[in-house]
Amino acid sequence: MTQKSFYITTTLPYVNADPHIGFALELVQADALARYQKLQGREVFFNTGTDEHGQKIFDASQKESGNVEEYVDKYANEFKKLAAALNISNDAFIRTTEERHQLAAQEMWRRCEKSGDIYKKSYEGKYCVGCESFKIPKDLDKQERCLLHPNLKINILKEENYFFRFSKYQDKLLEYLSRPGVIVPEWRREEAVNFVKSGLEDFSISREKERLSWGVPVPGDETQVMYVWFDALTNYISTLGWPFDSAQIRFQSLIWQAMLMSAGVKNTDKVVYHGFITSGGQKMSKSLGNVINPLELVKEYGADAVRYFLLRHVHPFEDSDVTLENVKEAYNANLANGLGNLASRILTLSEKYLEKCPDIPDGLTPKEFFAIFETFDVKKAADYVWDQIGELDQFIQSTEPFKVVKVNQEQGKKLISDMVVRLYKIARMLNALMPETNEKLKKLIKENKKPETPLFLRKE
Known about the structure:
Elements: E1 5-9, H1 21-39, E2 43-50, H2 55-64, H3 68-85, E3 92-95, H4 99-114, E4 118-128, E5 133-135, E6 155-164, H5 170-177, E7 183-184, H6 186-197, E8 203-204, E9 206-208, E10 217-218, E11 221-226, H7 228-233, H8 235-238, H9 249-263, E12 271-272, E13 277-279, E14 282-283, H10 294-301, H11 303-312, E15 320-321, H12 324-353, H13 367-373, H14 378-399, H15 401-407, H16 409-429, H17 435-447
Parallel strand pairs: 1-2, 2-3, 7-12, 13-15
Antiparallel strand pairs: 4-5, 4-6, 6-8, 9-11, 10-11, 13-14
């Protein structure tokens, strides 16, 4: 790719359940960044997809239907539906069960093996089914439970697997992590640095086929399949056609980077981490009844309203609490009563008193708005737009153009024209955040028409 190109990818969600709001957040954040880069004139390639191998998926498929291929097809389709419902502009949707991906994963294996970084040994260790990986003491709590899955029993497994020489890349990873801005936010970079400094251990990258058949076959060894993470991470370059076309903290920032180093492939320029979403102060779970389905939200509020909420009312880097009540509150206050009401007031005056849409100058979008996107802080970018909305609303209240135009038509028309131009400026900035609203507003402004129905119907 040229210097003017920009490649962005989400992580791949595991297809052992319906899409959740946490992945919806990741999709719209990545989409806003991709759309912004297109506005900058860059050639953008935006990837997402689904992670479809591993023990958890195989076990879940046996409980549901007994057919793992049908199971992953079903859930991959649900994630495709979510991307479409949220108006995501992705260029690719990679599934790790696709042949092109499996061939790429096998080539990644061969290259790492050629570098002397893959070896086979017998191993007995503590295994977490939730993580699908062996655990070392620092991964476990005082009760010998996985820190990420404390409700699951740790199993003792003994088998012969292939291992990756992760320990070999400690110094190179520290060098990589020393680059300014390589991980956003900064505290995540520091977390990764501390993890590497604590010492890296080689880890298992295969499973015995006799125990787990659902995986990518290890090249040259029919008795083994790849560990799901070694397979799945390769999607970030298999989606680009690699190797045929050259065109979480530990996994994304470290293991994947070490694999790229071993295979002789360029490292990731930047890794951006978002936080987790809770509801009512608790982790979302079906048993608690606090799971929020993003597809249901889209059905109730519309794609742009859900995008707005996730981009502005969920912190881009820290954990955030989301409830149906605060979704509704934000919608009514900032969309129905905010942007929607403002647009209606201005366009009603414009249609009544102006013969046509005023001239819209180029270069309306402030440079500081673009600068915010370069920091990946999409919430701050959305806040910037809503500050502009608030200022325009205050302008109407202080100048009262609806009164002025009745006593001084020329002055009143000038005030209304200024408001229309400022509204168009807001519409332009919504391009990356709320693309449907961006198009609707620009069309109404250019046609000099008020909305026939509210842009956002108030929810009671």
